[in-house]
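Exam prep: given the inputs below (a chain plus S-adenosyl-L-homocysteine), describe the expected output before reading on.
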Amino acid sequence: MALSRDANTEARHRLVGQLQEQGIDNLRVLDAFWQVPRHQFIEPALQFRAYEDVTLPIGFQQTLSRPSVVAFQLQRALARVPTPRFVLEIGSGSGYQTALLTHLCLRVYSVERIAGLHQQVDERLRRLGQRNFRLRHGDGFEGWAQHAPYSVIIAAACAPDVPQAWIDQLAPGGVMLMPVEQGQGQAMLEVHKDLEGNLNSMIVNDASFVPCLPGKVG
Ligand code: SAH
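Solution:
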């Protein structure tokens, strides 16, 4: 069941209000959520749930994170780096977060290991009129050295530890937001690299993401 165009707009408006109630007060982040039609990143049968604050399946046993979780990550990143130049995203998935990022930085570089997901994203973003992104079918553990350094690195899949490639590719003054395994669960880790290249990391939330897996598929 699909909502009508107006119903989607209304639902998106409500979602932005809910994010505000949950403490998201960065206006650029809120505006990005307002700009990007989340229902276009979800299969038609599930589109009526597109603006609920829930995790939704995107095929290939992967999920689109809850909007509040994505908003939290983006807000933390922008608190450190208000106007990022290059952003590296690990796990394009549906492309929804990639689309949000196109509104928040100069250019997004997004890596996805599953070919079937990777292939859908280009058209989705172009349909929305976005051009400031580059996509790669590859193993995100390697980052994307060619376009480094990145002022923000954001991961949508949980790694066992911080990959050295990401540390190397993070710009001085940059910030990385990534879920990481911790004991039996996961934590959201914020890693900041100062201008001398020293790293500072802290846990800023708990987390529940799909695993970051090595190699590429398809
Ligand atoms: N941000 C995405 C959420 C995708 S879920 C969205 O808005 O839809 C996490 C994604 O990370 C999945 O698509 C999964 O295939 C991908 N992933 C997991 N390990 C990866 C790796 N090593 N490199 C690249 N992508 C990876």
